Amino acid sequence: MLKSLSFKPFFHSLNPITTVPISTPKSISSLSTLSLNHNSSTTSQQTQFTVSYLITNFGFSSETASKASKLVQFDTSRKPDSVIAVFRNYGFSDSQIKNIIRQAPDILKCDPYKRVLPKFEFLTSKGASNIDIVEIVTRSPRILGSSLENSIIPTFESVRMFLPSNEKVIERILHCKHFFGHFHFIRNVKMLLDDGVIHSNITFLLLRRPSILLTYDMRNALDLVKEMGFDDPTNVNFCQALLAKRAMSKSRWDAKVVVFKKWGWSDEMVLEAFRKRPLCMLASTEKINKVMRFWVNELGWDSSALVKRPEVFSYSLENRIVPRACVVSYLISKGLIEKNIELSTPFGVNENVFLEKYVQCFKEESDDLLKLYLEKMGV
């Protein structure tokens, strides 16, 4: 627990001003020596006080407190006490305050009514609750060091351009750890707009994965997506491709390509599937293997059929792929549909269309088909 803080007034006694002779170099030298000694002594006292304060109030180890004292020093508890009081007033717990101070110790020497409170009040004015503020600051204390006028407000207003309400902006900020503290978002949004990306596609990125808009190398990402064949920035596929490429490292991307090739795809087929449905590359290597294993080994179907419907890798194996595949397999075995049909088609339609086209239209078999389908669904 943090030590209970008191707010006693602090007074500094002033020594009488003395006249120092300055007529000779020796006197100047003496004054300089006295000044250096005094400054050194003052600094040492501040360091000792700061280390002691951090240990006593936050339970820091001596090593952690010493490291923090290199970033912030104070010789009275007036400012740090007032900072902690503001945090507590907004509902921050002792452990949360400790974590914030560990990451941003210099906040203890600020005037919280000028540096901290205005930021909290701004977020409150935009609909953030105290709980929201605690969450935002705890996740990323860098907001405390950001300029309200030059960073926080412009960033908030930029996000608001693409979302219907302040509440939605707060929601997105809560989903992204480092929304404040840098200018990447504003810069990246301008870059996207200049490249022809429309508002609705930027909204898509904000709603799906806002961290994409904070990337430091957006220019490279945009150029790469264009090189892969996405040449229409007004198409949602353009931003889906951007999301897919920025959501994973090159090593993870390459690992997924290796898995696809293991099941018979070529590099060209992987690229074709990606161009059709970019989000298919967000499926894990484990999911890709499971779908392919069921499709090829259990059903005996050609893996190349999935190049035309790569969104299948985004579907639930248990709730969609297996139940529908069993119905289609049954229809093929009974000669009710041709084996050379586009096998992936039944998986891309919604459930009502699937039931109408692959269950209900076969009058004599519909009961058995529905029973099979529901059984595989676990109903």
Automatic annotation (TrEMBL):
Pfam families in UniProt: mTERF
InterPro entries per UniProt: MTERF, MTERF_sf
Domain of life per record: Eukaryota
Gene Ontology cellular component list: chloroplast
Any one Gene Ontology BP term: chloroplast organization
Transcription listed as a keyword: yes
Protein name: mTERF protein
